[in-house]
């Protein structure tokens, strides 16, 4: 990525890649700086975290078997030796590599069997189909096709997603964003965390906003863990520029006084998006 700082399309892709952990070191450093200094980019990051949160939540953690990577590497090496143009010696050397990579996965995993040509298994006797899966050109073609599908899905998601009108980047400390508050045209307001916050037992994160100094801070959300949280402003009008939002650590049922009593974990002021 060359000029993501100014190009809106590049900024969107940079935010998505950073959230997915796919950004290269230079781009990741740029994304971190933008998230701290640029409210619009921070909102873009929050948008992608929120869109991908459901997928992340529905994928239970599963330890990778120790044998899986060696089996994959052996399978790739075997495919290269068995590819069209490989010497006969290389084909013989491939041997019964990775008789069944599926056996390397845990019982709950889903891994496509990778059999050597002519070996026993689901594709035994399938003729050219076995050779097809050992063909590097086929694998490269599938990779290109998958990339195109991902690009189309990303494009559709970018067009369909509503954009906030007002955002606030809540900073844990200068240059370190912790969450984003987004306010939409339809009246919805939500908090999207950008980092995990450990919450001690018996405590909760409480979100506050200060719209009128005479009225003081008003609680608008309570959660036991860092997560995307709809905020309830009650009778308050929608957020306006330079409105304060902050998160404090409170008892699990919320502040007993109706005012912040615990330490302020992060805070920030709202600004309008373009």
Poorly predicted runs of 5 or more residues: 96-134
What would the average pLDDT be, to the nearest integer? 73
Write the element-wise H/E pattern from the N-terminal end onward. Answer: HHHHHHHEEEEEEEE
Radius of gyration: 25 Å
Whole-number count of domains: 3
Shape: globular
- Main sheet summary: 8 strands, antiparallel
How are strands sequenced across the largest beta sheet?
5-4-7-8-1-2-3-6
The number of strands is: 8
By DSSP (H or I, 4+ residues per run), the number of helices equals 7
Please report which band the strand proportion falls in: under 5%, 5-15%, 15-25%, 25-35%, 35-45% or over 45%: 15-25%
- Amino-to-carboxy terminus distance: 23 Å
Structure class:
alpha+beta
The percent range for helix content is: 25-40%
Structure, briefly:
The protein has 274 residues and is of the alpha+beta class. It has helices at 8-20, 25-37, 39-57, 68-82, 88-94, 128-133, 136-160, and strands at residues 166-173, 176-183, 189-193, 203-210, 218-223, 229-230, 244-251, 264-272. Helix content is 36%, strand content 20%.
What is this structure's SSE topology?
Elements: H1 8-20, H2 25-37, H3 39-57, H4 68-82, H5 88-94, H6 128-133, H7 136-160, E1 166-173, E2 176-183, E3 189-193, E4 203-210, E5 218-223, E6 229-230, E7 244-251, E8 264-272
Helix pairs in contact: 1-3, 2-3, 4-5
Any overview of this molecule?
It is built from seven helices and eight strands, in the order αααααααββββββββ. The protein has 274 residues and is of the alpha+beta class. It has three domains: 52 residues, no CATH class; 86 residues, no CATH class; 107 residues. Helix 1 packs across helix 3, helix 2 crosses helix 3 and helix 4 runs antiparallel to helix 5. The protein is globular, with a radius of gyration of 25 Å. The two termini are 23 Å apart.
């Amino acid at each position: 990525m060359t000029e993501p700082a100014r190009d809106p399309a590049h900024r969107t892709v940079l935010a998505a890649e950073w959230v997915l952990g796919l950004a290269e070191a230079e781009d990741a450093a740029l994304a971190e700086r933008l998230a701290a200094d640029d409210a619009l980019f921070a909102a873009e990051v929050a948008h992608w975290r929120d869109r991908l949160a459901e997928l992340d939540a529905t994928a239970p953690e599963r330890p990778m078997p120790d044998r899986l990577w060696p089996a994959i590497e052996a399978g790739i090496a075997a495919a290269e030796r068995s590819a069209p143009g490989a010497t006969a010696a290389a084909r013989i050397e491939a041997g019964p590599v990775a008789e069944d990579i599926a056996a390397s996965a845990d019982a709950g995993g889903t891994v496509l069997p990778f059999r050597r040509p002519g070996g026993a298994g689901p594709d035994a006797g399938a003729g050219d189909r076995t050779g097809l899966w050992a063909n590097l050109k086929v694998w490269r073609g599938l990779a290109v096709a998958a990339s195109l599908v991902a690009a189309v899905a990303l494009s559709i998601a970018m067009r369909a997603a509503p954009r906030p009108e007002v955002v606030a980047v809540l900073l844990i400390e200068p240059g370190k964003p912790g969450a984003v508050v987004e306010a939409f045209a339809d009246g919805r307001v939500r908090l999207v965390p950008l980092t995990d916050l450990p919450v001690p037992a018996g405590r909760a994160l409480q979100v506050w906003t200060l719209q009128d100094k005479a009225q003081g801070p008003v609680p608008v959300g309570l959660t036991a863990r860092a997560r995307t949280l709809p905020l309830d402003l009650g009778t308050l009008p929608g957020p306006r520029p330079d409105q304060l939002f902050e998160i404090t650590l409170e008892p699990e049922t919320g502040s007993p006084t109706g005012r912040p009593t615990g330490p302020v974990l992060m805070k920030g002021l709202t600004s309008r998006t373009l």
